[in-house]
Amino acid sequence: MNEEQDMAEARKTLAGYRASIDNFDAILIHTLAERFRCTQAVGVLKATHGLPPADPNREAQQIERLRRLAKDAHLDPDFAEKFLNFVIREVIRHHEQIAADANGG
């Protein structure tokens, strides 16, 4: 195979990888959207029943669980924890807003 053919094959392979990456990005966005739809419902339930927006025990359990899953999947557990902490902070922010709205602002 000559250099030109080799480069063409490399570009084709790269395009295939990028198509898969694009698909995974779409999956992540749709999965996060579904997750936030569920957590919004949890926020409404908590606000309706006067439960606190944050649940530190649940959060700690989830972080521990996600770290184990990450390790089993050969993903950096620290990265997974940072990602989950980011999501949890956003969920709590939503829950606090829902509670404030339920209590008149």
From TrEMBL:
GO terms for molecular function: chorismate mutase activity. Residues 8-99 form the Chorismate mutase domain. SMART domains: CM_2 (SM00830). Keywords: Isomerase. Its EC number is 5.4.99.5. Coiled coil: none annotated. InterPro entries: Chorismate_II_sf (IPR036263), Chorismate_mutase-related (IPR051331), CM_bact (IPR010951), CM_dom_sf (IPR036979), CM_II_prokaryot (IPR002701). PANTHER family: CHORISMATE MUTASE. This is chorismate mutase. It comes from Ollibium composti.
